[in-house]
Structure formats: structure tokens, C-alpha cells
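explain this.
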Amino acid sequence: MDFLFSKTIGILSGMLGFRSQRNKIILSNIANMDSPDYKPKDYVFKRDLSRAVADRGQLTLLKTDGKHLPADLNEISDDDFEVVETGKNVNMDTEMTHLAENHLRYNLTVEMLARKFKGLNTVLKETK
């Protein structure tokens, strides 16, 4: 069945989970905006991976230890993400921008997943 449901569906469903969790964190930031000493949080890849991507250098994927991050996107799980404090005060404009961006990306992922299933549906109908 793996040939029918390619890696794309796994990646897209993982992205839906990520976007959903990030939405909860952003809404928590907005809800706690007036709480004293509250620092906003974000849901991101663990620091090692985000730092490697931020460097924009060549990232050679060589897994020599079991503690290394996965080289295959299908191996990425909830354990590869973490909630981090951004270290700033809550800014309503910033949080609303993050919320809108996250919402658009969530909708894009849903649309891509729907198109994938529509394509599979078409293939199944044509083979009858």
C-alpha cells in the first residue's frame, strides 16, 4: 500500500500536526498577553536543525549516531519539535501576523492533501 500512499501524504499530515500545535502556542501567547512576566513561546524544530537551516550552508545528511536528527523526512516526529521562549514581550501585531501566516500555511497544506486524495480518487475511478 506504500506505493499508493506515497511519502507526500505522510509529510503533509505531519505538517498539519505541526501547524495545529503552533496555532495552539500562538493563541496561548495572545491569551496570556496581559499576564505579568509571561514570555511568548513558539513551536519550532529543535535548535540543532533550525540552526543548520539558518546557516544556509551545505547540510550533509550523515547519520552516524542514534541521537542524530533523521535524514529522511518520514522519520520526523513530534519529538523533533520543541516549544521555546522567544525572549521578548508579547506584541499583539506580531502574534496576529504569526497566527495569520500559520493559518494560511495550514490551509495550503490541507489543499495540497485534498488534491493528493483527489488524484488518487481519479486513478481509482479510471481503473474500474
Summary: The chain has a mean pLDDT of 79. Residues 92-126 form the longest helix (35 residues).
